[in-house]
Design brief:
alpha+beta; six-stranded antiparallel β-sheet; two-stranded antiparallel sheet
Length: 184
Amino acid sequence: MASTKSGASGAPGATTMVAVAPHLGLERVLRQSATSVTALLEQLVGEPVDAHARRHVMTRAGTPNLLEVEEGHRLLRRSAVLEGRRSARPYMHAESLLVPSRLPDSFCRRLENSSDPIGRIFAEEGVGFTRSPLPCPDRPRAGDWPVPDDYLLSRTYRVDVDDVPVMVITEWFLPALELFLGPC
């Protein structure tokens, strides 16, 4: 079970950190969390996280697809590494396939022009969402963007806004998170 403890300074307004047990504990906390992964990571590591090494490529939907769009519909493929703002530690690699036409224009502009992770944009734009777990894909096919060889946990899920699919996200939680996980 996750427990809460004060940030290093203990001062009012200090970032709250969440201690979790390794691997399975991390998986359980992620599964039970109603907040964004961005907010959860920030609580866990005690610092803000930003999206770096971002790649954006426009593509077209194939058929069938998990986003319930017609073949040829414009999609945005995004890859990013969430890093600590102060430490520059890489905590998570994420790949997303988004339906820009189903998201507010301001959301899409921020994806393109800022280092804000998707979860922060959802929160600050006031967009509510739900997650539906999906099977994790096998290792990426040849020609796909590189993903980490070494990671603690990976997962894939679909994000819906108002019961409409808007994106599919695959996340790889990186070894830098081990510093913040409880003992075995």
